[in-house]
Amino acid sequence: MEGNLVGAINNQVEMETPNNITIKGILGLLMANTEATDVKKVISLGMGDPTLYSCFHSPDVAHDAVIESLTSHKFNGYSPTVGLPQTRKAIADYLSRELPEKLCADDVYITAGCTQAIELALSILARPGANILLPRPGFPIYALCAAFRNIEVRYFDLIPDKGWEVDLNAVEALADHNTIGIVVINPGNPCGNVYSYQHLQQIAETAKKLRTIVIADEVYGHLAFGANPFVPMGIFGDIAPVLTLGSLSKRWLVPGWRLGWLVTNDPNGTFKNPKFVERIKKYCDICGGPATFIQAAVPRIIQQTEDVFFRKTVNLLKWTADICCDKIKEIPCISCPYKPEGSMAVMVKLHLPLMIDISDDIDFCFKLAKEESVILLPGLAVGLKNWIRITFAADPASLEEALGRLKSFCQRHSYQQNDHH
């Protein structure tokens, strides 16, 4: 009997575990391939976690607010599974600053980071035969969540020469009556793009035409330092319903606090359907949100963080993005078609015909890790083979050191360089 049970469990695992690549999974393998020495420490530009570097630190008020809520002993119990009322209201007020229609607390659901907001969005929209339209390149957790929910994934391309804009013709060609949503990541991960007001409006109009919704991933909201200001997708909620996903992680530099949200931007009331609201609440009952004391700190964090803190972060990211792009111009065999204007990462194209003994982006990143102790993310992990993603949320000295090593690596593996010997 026991043998049968073990066999059944093994069969189940064999059948149902999606084989999607994850960023953390591949970075773990790359890290295991590095050889740190006293001379050469490992530098990771693979993970979007700015807290690895001392130049990015969260505001004091955030720490004070958490300490205050913890030492008050008022927040040791369960919170409502949709989130504390004061937390929901604080986030509704924060997001409403830029929206034509004011959000209320009931439009906001508190999640354990933006990753759980993604899981929540896909789980409540899932139905038999459903498909979802995802950007390529994009954030792989969407495809992984879709695989667990039996939602078919259909990819539309982002166009590098047009600032990684959405190929709207492709979106129209892919959609059908089973399409549950179009995912838009703005500011962009992994591309560093920031969409214009006009382009976001076109996306909303396309969603309306296709009778579907927009899932707007704004985890990098406000981290924009180029020509386009950050425009929240919720502005266009009256054209097509928008589920906005976000978190404190990136703007406040506290990714480990796991405080995110899912928000319904929907002046026409599509998401106000009692059955839909009930579905969200029941799913929140299953998964539970972030720690109560972290939630309780949110109103003070949002209200008392000074603009100077945000400006400092954005200026630092602009500086490191500039370093990144300037250095890439000096490196053979790679190129950057679009200078990042936001978020914390940039996509860089590999020119494999110019390289000796490098077969693809995975091979490139593994050999780079082994030879230079520098970790970059292979493009395959975000859906774009033979590209690499570089995270520039690092202190300038480490970034310059890592890119210097990348240059040495590319020179060593370049036909042109080797022809001179």
TrEMBL record:
Keyword Nucleotide-binding among record annotations: no
InterPro entries for the chain: Aminotransferase_I/II_large, NHTrfase_class1_PyrdxlP-BS, PyrdxlP-dep_Trfase, PyrdxlP-dep_Trfase_major, PyrdxlP-dep_Trfase_small, TyrNic_aminoTrfase
UniProt-recorded Gene Ontology molecular function terms: L-tyrosine-2-oxoglutarate transaminase activity; pyridoxal phosphate binding
Name of the protein in its database record: Aminotransferase class I/classII large domain-containing protein
A GO BP annotation: L-tyrosine catabolic process
Entries under PROSITE patterns matching the protein: AA_TRANSFER_CLASS_1 (PS00105)
Family, per entry: Belongs to the class-I pyridoxal-phosphate-dependent aminotransferase family.
Domain Aminotransferase class I/classII large residue range list: 40-406
Cofactors that this protein relies on: pyridoxal 5'-phosphate
Residues with the N6-(pyridoxal phosphate)lysine modification: 250
Keywords noted in UniProt: Aminotransferase, Pyridoxal phosphate, Transferase
